[in-house]
Amino acid sequence: MGTDRCAYLSRLRRVDPVPKVWFTLAALLVCLLADSIAVGLFTLAALSALNLALGGQRAGDLLRFLRVPLAFLVIGCLTIVLRPIGQGEALWAFRLLGRWCWGVTEENLRLGVLVCCKAMGAVSAMYFLSMNTPMTDLTAALERLKLPRLFVELVELIYRFIFLLTDTAASIHTAQQARLGYQGFRRSIRSMGELLSAVFVRSLHRGNRVFSALESRGYTGCLATLPGQYAPGRWLYGLAAAVAVCQLLILFAERRLLP
After folding, report:
1. Going by fewer Cβ within 10 Å, which terminus of the chain is more open, N or C?
2. Which strands sit side by side in the sheet containing 82-84, from one edge to the other?
3. Mean pLDDT of the chain
4. What pLDDT score was predicted for residue 186?
């Protein structure tokens, strides 16, 4: 998985994951609660810059990961910006089938841009955590934060079953390609349908085998792991406060609360 590869190669790999969790949550919550385009853009720029500077991530990898949510956001925000309108003023409008009037108003345009900026700022905050913290360290941090043990166990098992699902799908896809299952559009659609119908059944069987293997090794509902050796990351608390202060100053300036 791409983010896992980046996390294990990150310069922050050996830093205590708990401060990284709190740093991400602080930036994420302020970005979402501020309800500001400028704060969203600042969060996106600041967290991306910190990801590159502190984590040592490559700009190409970060841009590649950011393109995935951006594609969904563009499609989703179009449904916010382009909507049926009444007789009021519109920045741009057209008639659909000669009956319904669709267009873009200033309010809808601002709302669409706001949603996109807030979402991308939140995504950049989550990428700072996922690209600098392996999942094993993250689950250990969640346990240290006193989250319910059942929740942590479910996170670990779901994470494991993601790899089972992708491995099963890749094996079936390779077998289909070897039998020329993707030669032509109609055959490709049929092969894809057969893949989707078979992957969940085979993954269920493999999941049962994994659970049986856990039980044979003494699994009693708790995955015991040794704690890692981490460098103290208290400086991240100060960095989180600095980022939050900058976010709030930008919010106040945008709302003209500062001269």
Report:
1. C
2. 82-84, 100-104, 92-96
3. 84
4. 85
Taking 70 as the pLDDT cut, the residues of the chain under it are 1, 86-91, 93-100, 221-224, 257-259
CB atoms within 10 A of CB 62: 21
Domain spans of the chain, in order of start: 1-134+229-259, 148-225
- pLDDT given for residue 23 in this prediction: 95
Inter-axis angle of helices 2-9 and 106-130, nearest 10? 60
Residue type, 233: G
* pLDDT score for 179: 84
Q: Quick check: 148 and 71 in contact, CB under 8 A? A: no
Could you tell me the CA-to-CA distances from 64 to 24, 70, 118, 210 in Å, in that order?
A: 20, 10, 19, 33
- What are the angstrom distances between the C-alpha of 13 and each of 28, 89, 128? 21, 54, 12
Of 241, 248, 232, 239, nearest in space to 53 by CA:
239
Task: Name the pTM for this structure.
Answer: 0.81
